Amino acid sequence: MIEIFIRWCRKRGLFVGVVMLSLISALMLSFPFAFEVEAQNVPRSRQTSELRGVWLTNIDSDVLFARDRLSKALQKLKQLNFNTVYPTVWNWGYTLYPSKVAQRVFGRSLDPTPGLQGRDMLKEIVDGGHQQGLTVIPWFEFGFMAPADSDLAKRHPQWLTSRRNGTKIVKEGIHERVWLSPFRPDVQQFIQDLIVEIVRNYDIDGIQFDDHFGLPTELGYDPYTVALYRKEHRGQAPPNNFQDPEWVRWRADKITNYMKRVFKAIKNVKKDCLVSVAPNPQRFSYDFFLADWEKWERMGLVEELVMQIYRDDLQVFNSELERPEVKSAKRHIPVSVGILSGLKGRFVPTQQIETQVKNARDRNFAGVSFFFYETLWNMSKEKPEQRQTSFQKMFLTPISHPNLFKGWKP
Asked: Looking at residues 6-13, what average pLDDT do you find?
């Protein structure tokens, strides 16, 4: 642009050129932000891949409950140069795809929501997503968690773990949850069978877990787990303090061992199926959910990390991006940032989203993913057109998903 301007000046005389150049310089100095906004979210030209993902869930969203609605959503995402979707497949105690494993274990092959009946939602996303050039990585959202009144909890009460005082209910907002014990062999086999069923029966690009693949730290005092701990500690009972470092480490290591087993089971079926993990920052995941993803990553059990940084405070957001365990992971695998685009009762403005995307790019993260689809533009105080225009500017041109098996380099 500057070269074109100089040639124009030469044709019209030096004086005119100097005057015009001075005016342009003054404008740029007066309104630097305007020029910065246009460029702030443009990915570096040397990039050959960038995660541009979004989670598709059945909570506060109906995108999964109609074939046409789902198809249009995938088309819109492709149009705006997104490249990855993470559809939930295990939520509220049910599978969102027809499951023989679920039918066998607790008598329900599919979530009973009317909009899912007579369909295979997951197959629709895999087929439709791939037609649009999208990477499809099913999200095992509930992990070891289930509603307290679910068929699964009622059919297998012995599978549930508890606090030291014997209580089992964990409140999540207004909802009452229970947790399956990740230390029981029968629970482990059930969860692994669900995962392998998905990997074997669908042409997926990966499968994703999060903190719910751990366990709230206050739990683990069920009879089976206590007996197992006693067996490995010369008859000694677990500490009364559920935050006791050794008790936390013992349970976290058991979950890590199970993660290793699941990883192997996935690879035995499909070697190029990415194992993706979308946890909270390490300290929270470990201290509150016994999910030691830093150790998982060091062991080679994580092939894509999408860290949930759902923070409004930019300073806190940035500090999480600078953590040593995050920097270490970036040297081995694609590490991206999970950004909150809003919740049903929590509006996130476009400007905050744009700034967080820019900060992730400035630090050379592999990309971003947004939670969740409905709040990208449908559930917002801002007009859908405004939100979509913002994403269009952030994602100017198509780019591929950063896949460890398809040439991604740190």
From this structure: 41
Stated as kind and residue range, the H or E segment containing 368 is: strand 367-371
pLDDT computed for residue 179 by the predictor: 98
Q: How do the residues of the chain divide into helix, strand and coil, expressed in percent and rounded to 5?
A: 45, 15, 40
Cα separation, 314 vs 295, in Å, equals 27
Q: Which of 15-24, 355-364, 383-392 has the lowest mean pLDDT?
A: 15-24
Angstrom distance (rounded) from CA 226 to CA 236: 9
102 phi, psi to nearest 5 deg? -65, -40
Q: Report the CATH fold assignment for 44-394.
A: TIM Barrel (3.20.20)
Q: How far is CA 331 from the centre of its chain?
A: 20
Dihedral angle sign, alpha carbons of residues 398, 402, 405, 406: positive
Taking every pair of Cα atoms in the chain, the longest distance, rounded to a whole number of angstroms, is 94
| C-beta atoms surrounding 127 within 10 Å | 16
Tell me what pLDDT residue 47 has.
81
* Ordered DSSP codes for 301-358: --SEEEEE---S-HHHHHHHHT-HHHHHHHTTS-EEEEEE-EETTEE--HHHHHHHHH
Running DSSP on this structure, what letter comes out for residue 383? -
Domain ranges of the chain: 44-394
DSSP assignment, residue 97? S
DSSP designation for 48:
S
- The structure tokens listed for 157 are 């009460």
Q: What is the mean pLDDT of the chain?
A: 91
- Six-digit token pair at 297? 């990553």
15: pLDDT strictly greater than 50: no
**Sheet of 170-172, strand order:** 145-147, 175-179, 170-172
Element (H, E) at 27: helix 14-30
Say if CB 303 and CB 404 are below 8 A apart.
Answer: yes
Q: At what angle do helices 14-30 and 2-12 cross, to 10 degrees?
A: 150
What does the alpha-carbon distance between residue 374 and residue 362 come to, in Å, rounded to a whole number? 27
What is the tens place of the pLDDT at every residue in 18-57? 334 344 444 444 444 343 444 445 555 468 999 999 999 9
**Can you tell me the mean pLDDT for 317-341?**
98
Here the tokens at position 107 are 């008598």
The pTM of this model reads 0.89
